[in-house]
Design goal:
Elements: H1 2-14, H2 25-32, H3 39-65, H4 69-88, H5 90-104, H6 121-134, H7 141-151, H8 157-187, H9 189-192, H10 195-214, H11 217-226, H12 238-246, E1 271-272, E2 286-292, H13 297-313, E3 318-324, H14 334-343, E4 350-352, H15 357-361, E5 369-373, E6 379-384, H16 389-399, E7 422-423, E8 443-446, E9 456-464, E10 469-471, E11 476-484, E12 486-492, E13 497-503, E14 506-507, E15 523-525, E16 529-535, E17 541-549, E18 554-561
Parallel strand pairs: 2-3, 3-4
Antiparallel strand pairs: 1-4, 2-5, 5-6, 7-18, 8-9, 9-10, 9-11, 10-18, 11-17, 12-16, 12-18, 13-14, 13-15, 13-17
Helix pairs in contact: 1-8, 2-8, 2-10, 3-6, 3-7, 3-8, 4-5, 4-6, 4-10, 7-8
């Protein structure tokens, strides 16, 4: 326990060196620049308590109250924006100072002759509470374990202490940042004469950062910086791993008898092709756990291999369990998943892991991901992504006590330039070329001039939502500049409708038709799934794809194949 507390504290300390600090760093500098010498202490006190409290209880609070966690997040962002406004308006700042001073003195006669409340502590404390709600640190093994315990309602006294130690470690460097900002501005003669101007500039910076977090630009910033600044992880050592297992000794996730004991299937909403199963019920069988989602092209490409394995070995004590963990909201719908299972002709059991509980218990991070489990429930192999099909089959044969297959002569693999996956909803949109910015959550008319490589252009009326875009009239057009053999698009429509497909501004030749096309080269869209848009039959190259939509068709993401 002492080891975990020490490493939790140290892990919190080094968090300041990770990319995850970047979204809140300008806010800390700006908040520290506010008036009051005790303000930095108030900010960090509020942040430590808020982060620890909501880390441990947010899942439970959402469950019993029904309040969306997004609502709490947006309230916190609004509060931070308000603090930015108080730095721009002297009158607003004075009003809030009086308000917090009055709240702080309720029932507290000790404060009557103290300037502590008037020195910015309580306004900073409230600010810190809001900051603790919106900040998400880069999770290492310790914080990931805490998240798993919270998700599985396994909070203990030890978990609370570890969370507080982590929060305290995080708070110290953050306090130094906020205190340093406050000290420099208020104590340096050359700077102090411009204090009001600097505070107003910091107020603008705080508002800008709050809005950036509201619209998820902080995630984009972290993704960019991760390429250049790796996360420092001091927790990934055997001593910490051993102590983490003791936090939940009765759970298979932390089973002390084996580091590779397979976790059970927890938090499953529904089962398809089977009654509910457990790892215990599957003892004596060789099990392949496949994490997938039905609109993921990489997952779809593994399905023929998985079905072949199941057909060959399921009567020899081998079973596949498909853990369907959704990427998009519509993938949580049971009927949608049932339709996908039927369409892909999947015979093995599929479990709906809508709340990511089994995903978390396996500490999984990928679609697709395969975990091979032996007859005693021990994970013998892990594989992420596509490929390694022969190796996986031979491992299965070894566990079934069958002789290995002879290795086939490896095929020549040619690596070609390929358009990367393109998300269309504004949460992850990065490939548009537009004359105007995307208008979020509202219908708007769009147009563009030049369609660059691997870019999307919209024409006509469109509604842009977080995860998808939706055509708003019968003349909505999407153009795509791509290089690939295959183009796929995740779509849905409330009723069956036809879309028109053009390749390089001409009707698609029949030799490029896909299984989703009609005899006239159109595509009928209805259920939410991935549609096969074009198949160039190895005429690999760069082309322009034009799609003409009737109204109310929702588009989620493009994926591409060689």
């Amino acid at each position: 326990m002492i080891i975990l507390l020490i490493f939790s504290f140290l892990a919190g300390l080094v968090t300041v060196l990770s990319p995850c600090i970047l979204p809140v760093l300008p806010i800390l500098l700006a908040a520290g620049a506010g008036s009051g010498k005790y303000r930095p202490l108030g900010i960090i006190s509020g942040l430590i308590l808020s982060f620890a409290f909501f880390t441990l209880t947010l899942t439970y609070l959402v469950k019993i109250s029904g309040i969306s966690p997004n609502l709490l997040r947006y309230f916190a962002i609004a509060l931070i924006t308000f603090f930015g406004l108080t730095m721009l308006s002297e009158n607003l700042g004075k009003y809030f100072s009086k308000l917090t001073s009055g709240i702080s003195s309720l029932g507290n006669k000790i404060q009557e002759k103290s300037n502590f409340a008037g020195e910015g502590f309580f306004s900073g404390f409230i600010f810190g509470i809001a900051l603790g709600l919106i900040w998400t640190p880069c999770a290492g093994p310790i914080l990931a374990t805490i998240s798993t315990l919270v998700a599985t309602n396994a909070i203990t006294y030890s978990t609370i202490l570890i969370t507080l130690a982590y929060s305290l470690g995080t708070g110290i460097p953050m306090f130094l940042i906020a205190y340093g900002s406050n000290k420099i501005i208020n104590s340096t003669n050359m700077i102090s004469q411009y204090t009001e101007i600097i505070r107003k500039l910091f107020g603008i910076l705080m508002i800008f950062c709050a809005l950036a977090i509201a619209f998820h630009f902080d995630v984009i910033l972290q993704q960019i910086t991760l390429k250049y600044f790796p996360i420092i992880n001091i927790e990934d050592n055997e001593s910490v791993k051993k102590e983490l297992k003791k936090l939940k000794p009765n759970s298979s996730i932390f089973n002390s008898s084996s580091e590779n004991m397979a976790p059970d299937f927890i938090g499953i909403k529904d089962w398809i092709n089977s009654q509910p199963l457990t790892i215990e019920k599957l003892r004596g069988k060789v099990v392949l756990v496949d994490f997938w989602t039905y609109s993921c092209i990489n997952c779809i490409r593994t399905l023929p291999h998985l079905k072949e394995l199941y057909d060959k070995y399921h009567d020899q004590d081998f079973i596949i369990i498909g853990i369907h963990t959704p990427e998009f909201e519509f993938e949580k719908n049971l009927e949608n998943v049932k339709n996908a299972v039927k369409r892909f002709d999947i015979k093995y059991p599929v479990a709906l892991d809508n709340d990511y509980k089994t995903w978390i218990s396996y500490d999984n991070h990928y679609w697709p991901a395969h975990y091979l489990i032996d007859r005693t429930g021990i994970i013998k192999d892990k594989h992420f992504g596509e490929g390694a099909y022969l190796e996986t089959e031979n491992m299965i044969r070894d566990l079934l006590e069958l002789p290995p297959l002879h290795e086939k002569k490896p095929e020549k693999i040619s690596f070609k330039e390929l358009t990367p996956e393109i998300y269309l909803g504004y949460e992850r949109a990065a490939n548009y070329v537009m004359e105007t910015e995307l208008i979020r959550d509202k219908k708007n008319l769009y147009d563009y001039k030049n369609l660059e490589n691997d870019k999307v252009g919209l024409k006509g009326s469109w509604l842009v939502m977080p995860q998808f875009i939706q055509s708003q009239d019968n003349d909505s057009i999407l153009d795509l500049n791509f290089i690939a053999n295959h183009v796929y698009l995740v779509m849905k429509s409330p009723e069956p409708k036809l879309i028109t497909v053009l390749l390089d501004d001409k009707p698609v030749q029949k030799k490029y038709f896909t299984t989703d096309m009609t005899d006239t080269g159109q595509i009928k869209v209805s259920e939410a799934r991935m549609y096969d848009i074009i198949d160039l039959k190895d005429d690999f190259g760069r082309h322009k794809l034009t799609l003409k939509f009737p109204e109310n068709i929702s588009l989620y993401a493009f994926t591409f194949g060689q």
